[in-house]
């Protein structure tokens, strides 16, 4: 990577982080809302741990995986909206007049998303530790969890960037939020898949890639080192990241056509 | 009479905007269905938790929560529209042109109610299609939907008061968050008796718990805490009526 390219990525990543930090709603909401839901769900559903076959006696530990996904969704929507705003305000067109490489824009934007993801992951892990969650995979598991969060942030951030570049509209990006939410809700978010009673829901959760992301995180928290869950989780996360990055790169090339 | 004509004009405009703009209409229809699907579908085995006793089943148990939640958020969503009106300057023109300004609040409330009735119809039809068991009689169901109407009116009056005081779209979280907390600090997933820890204490004193438990009682055909629930619902409507009207005064003074 040349110095000039690294500087371009660095400058745009810095801009992305500073812009997010200057909008308190973009920082506070993705942190507070998942914690609030975790608190409500963990206490409200504690009695679910009495179901035969439930994998842990703490619903809080079971549900701690969910904020990692919710946080990624919020950060993604915010990042996508910011990039769309750059398109709407003409900032991207002005950048196109400079020698900046298109891929640096994507790298910078995703750098900002991943910085936010890192902060979120640190908050979720700290919350778990403060509230007495014993991470079954130990310190090494926490490190893997952190890396896995960044990988999810990269994939979902690229997806947000793709939507922004494809539509060029912040409203259109925000309009995709319910779609992402469906993926989160129709997953093993609230109950292990083998304990989901409704057949179609269990099938949908099994087909839903988000289930495998959640289960990989959950395995590190409540089970320990589960090679199958981790392989599936990392496989799905890498696939999402590769596909989303490819789509975003193609859209960026179209959007940044210099004529 | 003038108040009613103002209310009619405001309500028609809001409803026209909502029903001709999918980006406003769809979320208020889709989100309750999301919650219903996720809760009633994903968590259906909760009714096998020892001590869970709700004869119509978990789908009906969650339907009542989702119905009341859609009523409350239907009010809040309309509050977003009021804030948008004032941010764009339309609200000020409305204040200038309306001979009886309380009709503005009445119009927004009427629009929120009609908007929610559509949502309630969709949620109810979906619940019946997926086999929800209804054990309550016709009178019981009137009780359930009347409670939901009260909650819808209370929520729109709350959101109206906030929107008229702050007059910006950035007031959205202020309207939304307290409603969200009140709803989710009630017995959402299991009956009150099965809640453990701090949430049990909070839910016990949360007024929405009374409304929720009464609503579930109606659907199960065994009404419970009816007087208390209606007392809470009417008190919320009266308190937030004052809140909204004082908000109107605040908007008038701001010019």
Highlighted features:
heterodimer; A: 259 residues; mainly alpha; B: 255 residues; 10 helices
What does this structure look like?
The complex is a heterodimer of chains A (259) and B (255). Chain A has helices at residues 3-21, 24-44, 59-63, 65-89, 91-96, 102-130, 138-167, 170-175, 177-185, 199-207, 209-223, 227-255. Chain A is elongated and about 65 Å long. Chain A has one domain. By secondary structure, chain A is mostly helical. In chain A, 78% of the residues lie in helices and 0% in strands. The model of chain A has no long low-confidence stretch (mean pLDDT 87). Chain B is mainly α. Chain B has one domain (2-254). Helices cover 78% and strands 0% of the residues of chain B. Chain B is built from ten helices and no strands. Chain B is elongated. Chain B starts with a helix and ends with a helix. The model of chain B has no long low-confidence stretch (mean pLDDT 90). Classes of the chains: A mainly alpha (259), B mainly alpha (255). The A-B interface holds A 25, 29, 36-37, 40-41, 43-48, 50-51, 171, 175, 178, 181-182, 185-186, 189-191, 195-198, 200-201, 205 and B 23, 26-27, 30-31, 34-35, 37-38, 41-46, 48-52, 170, 173, 180-181, 184-185, 187-190, 194-199.
Strand elements of chain B, count: 0
Separation of the first and last Cα atoms of chain B? 25 Å
- How big a fraction of the residues of chain B is strand? under 5%
- What percentage of the residues of chain A does DSSP assign to strands (E)? under 5%
How does the major sheet of chain A shape up? Answer: none
Largest sheet of chain B: none
- The DSSP helix count of chain A reads 12
Quickly count the domains of chain A. 1
- Helix proportion of chain A: over 70%
| Pattern of helices and strands of chain B | HHHHHHHHHH
Classification by helices and strands of chain B: mainly alpha
**Multimer state:** heterodimer
């Amino acid at each position: 990577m040349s110095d000039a390219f690294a500087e371009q990525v660095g400058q745009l990543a810095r801009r992305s982080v500073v812009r997010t930090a200057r909008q308190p709603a973009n920082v506070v909401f993705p942190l507070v809302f998942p914690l609030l839901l975790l608190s409500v769900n963990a206490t409200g559903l504690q009695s679910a741990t009495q179901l035969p076959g439930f994998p842990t006696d703490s619903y809080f530990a079971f549900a701690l995986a969910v904020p990692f996904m919710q946080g990624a969704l919020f950060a993604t929507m915010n990042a996508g909206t910011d990039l769309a705003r750059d398109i709407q305000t003409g900032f991207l067109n002005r950048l196109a007049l400079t020698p900046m490489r298109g891929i640096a824009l994507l790298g910078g934007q995703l750098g900002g998303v991943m910085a936010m993801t890192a902060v979120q992951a640190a908050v979720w892990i700290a919350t778990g530790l403060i509230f007495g969650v014993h991470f079954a995979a130990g310190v090494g598991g926490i490190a893997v969890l952190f890396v896995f969060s960044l990988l999810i942030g990269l994939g979902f951030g690229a997806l947000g960037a793709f939507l922004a570049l494809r539509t060029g509209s912040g409203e259109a990006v925000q309009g995709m939020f319910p779609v992402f939410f469906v993926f989160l809700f129709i997953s093993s978010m609230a109950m292990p898949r083998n304990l989901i009673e409704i057949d179609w829901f269990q099938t949908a959760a099994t087909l839903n890639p988000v289930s495998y992301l959640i289960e990989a995180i959950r395995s590190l928290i409540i089970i320990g080192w589960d090679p199958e869950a981790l392989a599936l989780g990392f496989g799905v996360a890498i696939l999402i990241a590769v596909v989303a990055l490819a789509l975003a790169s193609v859209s960026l090339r179209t959007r940044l056509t210099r004529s | 009479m003038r108040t009613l004509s103002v209310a009619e004009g405001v309500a028609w405009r809001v409803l026209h905007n909502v029903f001709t703009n999918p980006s406003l209409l769809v979320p208020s229809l889709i989100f309750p269905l999301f919650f219903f699907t996720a809760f009633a579908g994903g968590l259906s085995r909760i009714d096998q938790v020892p001590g869970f006793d709700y004869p119509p089943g978990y789908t009906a148990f969650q339907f009542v929560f989702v119905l009341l939640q859609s009523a409350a958020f239907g009010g809040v969503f309309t509050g977003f529209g009021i804030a948008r009106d004032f941010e764009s300057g339309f609200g000020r023109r409305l204040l200038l042109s309306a001979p009886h300004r309380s009709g503005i609040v009445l119009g927004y409330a009427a629009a929120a109610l009609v908007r929610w009735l559509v949502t309630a119809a969709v949620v109810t039809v979906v619940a019946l299609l997926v086999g929800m068991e209804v054990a309550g009689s016709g009178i019981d169901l009137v009780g359930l939907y009347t409670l939901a109407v009260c909650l819808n009116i209370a929520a729109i009056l709350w959101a109206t008061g906030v929107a008229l005081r702050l007059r910006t779209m950035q007031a959205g979280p202020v309207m939304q968050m307290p409603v969200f907390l009140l709803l989710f600090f009630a017995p959402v997933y299991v009956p009150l008796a099965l809640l453990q820890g701090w949430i049990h204490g909070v839910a016990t004193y949360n007024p929405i718990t009374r409304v929720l438990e009464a609503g579930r009682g109606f659907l199960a055909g065994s009404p419970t805490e009816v007087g208390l629930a209606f007392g809470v619902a009417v008190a919320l409507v009266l308190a937030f009526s004052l809140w909204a009207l004082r908000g109107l005064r605040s908007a008038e003074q701001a010019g």
